[in-house]
């Protein structure tokens, strides 16, 4: 099963989220690509993701998910108690996405932009597209 997370490569919060996921993904289920990368842009086009999407994009089973649905589907696959966050899928999507958009809108102000790229370990590097 293909699980790809496309993330904002300039966002400190997004980078920290990717590191968080890697640590809680011992089976290496997820692969990653920056939204700004060639691979990321090609996947956005392949899955018909609107160009103005300001969200993580999670691709699973040849479908794409954005905003709160993407985040919740990711937690469902993490080790430990993080799986329990998936219960929030019962909250109406407009409400969940309102909270997601508020965080996304303020992410640069609160967490800043990356000045340099992280250097993944050789093991982690295999997971980046």
Automatic annotation (TrEMBL):
One Pfam family matching this protein: DCC1-like
Q: Which organism's genome codes for this protein?
A: Solibacillus isronensis B3W22
Q: What is this protein called?
A: Thiol-disulfide oxidoreductase DCC
The GO terms this record gives for MF are:
protein-disulfide reductase activity
């Amino acid at each position: 099963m293909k699980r790809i997370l496309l993330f904002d490569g300039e966002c400190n919060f997004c980078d920290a989220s990717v590191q968080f996921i890697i640590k809680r993904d011992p089976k290496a289920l997820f692969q990653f690509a920056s939204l700004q990368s060639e691979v990321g842009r090609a996947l956005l086009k392949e899955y018909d993701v609107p160009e103005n999407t300001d969200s993580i994009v999670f691709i699973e089973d040849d479908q794409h998910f954005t905003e709160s649905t993407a985040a919740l589907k990711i937690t469902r696959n993490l080790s430990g108690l993080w799986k329990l966050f998936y219960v929030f899928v019962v909250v109406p999507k407009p409400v969940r996405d309102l909270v997601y958009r508020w965080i996304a809108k303020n992410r640069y102000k609160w967490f800043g932009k990356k000045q340099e790229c992280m250097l993944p370990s050789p093991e982690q590097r295999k997971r980046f597209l």
